[in-house]
Amino acid sequence: MKKLILFLSLFISSVVWANPALGSSAYKEWLNIIDAGKYGESWQKSDSFFKSQLSKKQWNSALKGIRTPLGKVISRTELSAKEYSSLPGVPDGEYLVIQFQTDFQNKKASTETLTLSKNSGQWLTVGYFIK
């Protein structure tokens, strides 16, 4: 669980540039999968680094305990999208950190943070955090 908490909280480092349109189709598809409760599928569609840090079973268990109780998404608004060349705990590369203001059925004004990594021209999830 310590590894999961550390992994889910590895986010802010040095800013390179911002481009909110980067990775938008990838993150929308991935969040829709999470919103549908298809946690195993979200793990499958994540970056290999993400999968190396926690098993599909661990990911399912974590989200069932954290995300499921929040209920359905009522609204989700993108607050920021920033690209980074390095983040703590992961190899240097191209990363996109996107924050959302999200109202869930059972919790209003939450902040979701999604981190994507660009691999072979494709943006894939390497981190997801709800505050």
Please tell me about this protein's structure.
By secondary structure, this protein is α+β, with helices and mostly antiparallel strands. The chain has a single domain (2-130), classed as Nuclear Transport Factor 2, Chain: A. It is built from five helices and five strands. It has a five-stranded antiparallel beta sheet. The two termini are 17 Å apart.
Class from helix and strand fractions = alpha+beta
- CATH fold node name: Nuclear Transport Factor 2, Chain: A
Number of helices: 5
Secondary-structure element string: HEHHHHEEEE
> Residue-averaged pLDDT, rounded?
84
Unreliable residue stretches: 1-20
Q: Short summary of the structure?
A:
The chain has helices at about 1-10, 25-35, 40-45, 50-55, 55-65, and strands spanning about 15, 75-85, 95-105, 105-120, 120-130. It has about 130 residues and is α+β, with helices and mostly antiparallel strands.
